[in-house]
């Protein structure tokens, strides 16, 4: 079982090494071969991680059988509140941050005001985290 994980980690290391080689070499003929190698190694890596998870999931399901359904729903609610809040915060920071950058490029005097708006957008993730901590505290 751990051999699959080790092979996947080795392939990901080789992929990163190939990427550095392409970046440093900058030779057009070898770049095509390395890009093909990277695509193949990423495909093998995804397949190996899928196989690893396929064999790991029954162990996870067996370990979770001791938890009753109401606390399981609480854990699910905590995970969803954090996950959805961080997705929303990422979207908000992307929209507000790009707009703030455009506004600051036109008028550098409004940098402080735009940072406040970006901070408010980041606060969405903190609210989701607080809600999940409150949910976990009730379990």
Overview of the structural elements:
Its main location: membrane. Residues 76-135 form the V-ATPase proteolipid subunit C-like domain. One of its GO terms (molecular function) is proton transmembrane transporter activity. This is ATP synthase F(0) sector subunit c. By secondary structure, the chain is mainly α. It folds into 2 domains: 2-65; 67-138, F1FO ATP Synthase, CATH 1.20.20. 91% of the residues lie in helices and 0% in strands. It contains 4 helices and no strands. It has helices at 2-25, 28-63, 69-106, 111-138.
Topology, number of strands: 0
Helix content, binned percent: over 70%
Structural class: mainly alpha
**Corresponding CATH superfamily of the largest domain:** F1F0 ATP synthase subunit C
Query: What count of structural domains?
Result: 2
Shape: flat
The radius of gyration computed from the alpha-carbon positions, rounded to a whole number of angstroms, is 23 Å
Oligomeric state of this protein: single chain
Which CATH first-tier class of the largest domain would you pick? Mainly Alpha
Q: N-to-C SSE series? A: HHHH
CATH topology-level name of the largest domain: F1FO ATP Synthase
Quickly count the helices. Answer: 4
Q: Biggest sheet: strands, sense, closure? A: none
Regions with little confidence, pLDDT below 50 for 5+ residues: none
């Amino acid at each position: 079982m751990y051999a699959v994980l080790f092979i996947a980690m080795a392939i990901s290391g080789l992929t990163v090494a190939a990427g550095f080689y392409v970046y440093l070499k900058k030779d057009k003929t070898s770049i095509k071969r390395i890009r093909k190698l990277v695509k193949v190694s990423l495909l093998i890596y995804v397949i190996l991680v899928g196989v690893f998870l396929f064999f790991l999931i029954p162990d996870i399901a067996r370990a979770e059988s001791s938890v009753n359904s109401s606390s399981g729903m609480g854990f699910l609610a905590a995970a969803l509140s954090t996950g959805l809040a961080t997705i929303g915060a990422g979207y908000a920071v992307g929209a507000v941050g790009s707009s703030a950058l455009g506004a600051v490029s036109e008028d550098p005097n409004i940098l402080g005001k735009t940072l406040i708006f970006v901070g408010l957008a980041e606060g969405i993730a903190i609210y989701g985290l607080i809600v999940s901590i409150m949910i976990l505290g009730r379990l």
